[in-house]
Amino acid sequence: MASQKVPQATAERLPLYYRTLQRLVAIGKTRISSSEFGSIVQIDSTTIRKDFSYFGALGRKGYGYDTQRLMEFLKKILYQDELSKVILIGAGHLGTALLNHNFQKNNNTKIVRAYDVDPSKVGKEISGTEVHPMNELVTDDNSDITAAILTVPSAHAQEAAEMAIASGIHGFLNFSPTRLVLPADVYVRHVDMTVELQALIYFLNHSMEERKSE
Amino acid sequence: MASQKVPQATAERLPLYYRTLQRLVAIGKTRISSSEFGSIVQIDSTTIRKDFSYFGALGRKGYGYDTQRLMEFLKKILYQDELSKVILIGAGHLGTALLNHNFQKNNNTKIVRAYDVDPSKVGKEISGTEVHPMNELVTDDNSDITAAILTVPSAHAQEAAEMAIASGIHGFLNFSPTRLVLPADVYVRHVDMTVELQALIYFLNHSMEERKSE
């Protein structure tokens, strides 16, 4: 697949395109233009055409995109045709919210185990997922696990990540604001609430200024 | 300020740059090269130089960036020199995690009120923030509120957003997977856990394939 040339920004938009296409197919929409698709996902149609162009001729001029075909293509590209198992480290409020969220509903990602230090949580299930004691993380065989979701307090993020790496994990979705110092072959994706909120405030203030100066 | 030409992708990286610079200044680092800065934030130095170039000559060739000056500049650009008040709608697990997170610690954003339908939560405080009954959302004067964080279950997201707009809100950080249908002058920023996780899995799988084919 010619996917090595795909820019990171494009790759990051693919899951959103995929989910939107799933919905369009579900309501019986068989084809869509890039501009209509763009207005649904709230992304410029030029960007959308550019994004899809990295994967060859997915659409036809004057016809648009075949929603079913495009959805199947993205499903494959995003490895959604196979089950990805992940573990969750830290079953506090955020971890519990993610367990309740139930990734399986719309895709093939499943949280198979959670880990926590709290004895009152260990051995129990949260939304059907069992909570294991944190010290088992180092001894558990996680070789079939694609990634770990890290939702421990900041002060414990580095230590928890190192324990997970020792057990075979090489990818993290990190919700703590801490930048982790990890081996170069470990991939970390940050979700930072403060950054998201600051970005929102930036866009709000700038769009207000633009309106005022019109 | 020449910020209207700033691409969205650049604007989205500014909060991360700002926070990293705060840390560098705190540890007494007075200047930094774009390549060193890039290795810290894990972003290509070419991208960093391009991002900063939108705001004029912030660095000097052969010298790099003055961390203090750059931090102060970004503080202003990101409106972090003034307090932004936000409200939180939905004090479930995710909402509680965000209230515990305490945005104020590293920046000037404060959750001033939370709203929930659960009578067992209403009237109480979570991490110092009072929980109001949801029906007060429509009658409360939210004209001094910059944005609302939406952490209600998907089925209630549209309704809650409409109530917030009626009370004066025009910006949302939406954590529900629902795409909201709102007036054009309302700005919505989505944080989608499924999309983040799929993007992580995409990058992990592709980097593994690249390693295998080496």
Automatic annotation (TrEMBL), chains A, B:
DNA-binding interval(s): 16-55
Domain named CoA-binding: residues: 79-179
InterPro entries named among the record's database cross-references: CoA-bd, NAD(P)-bd_dom_sf, Rex_DNA-bd_C_dom, Tscrpt_rep_Rex, WH-like_DNA-bd_sf, WH_DNA-bd_sf
UniProt KW keywords: Cytoplasm, DNA-binding, NAD, Repressor, Transcription, Transcription regulation
GO cellular component: cytoplasm
Example GO BP: response to redox state
Any one GO MF annotation of this record: DNA binding
Binding site for NAD(+): G90, A91, G92, H93, L94, G95
Top-level taxon of the source organism: Bacteria
Predominant place of localization: cytoplasm
Cell location: Cytoplasm
PANTHER family: REDOX-SENSING TRANSCRIPTIONAL REPRESSOR REX (PTHR35786), REDOX-SENSING TRANSCRIPTIONAL REPRESSOR REX 1 (PTHR35786:SF1)
Function description: Modulates transcription in response to changes in cellular NADH/NAD(+) redox state.
Assembly and oligomerization: Homodimer.
Assigned protein family: Belongs to the transcriptional regulatory Rex family.
Protein name: Redox-sensing transcriptional repressor Rex
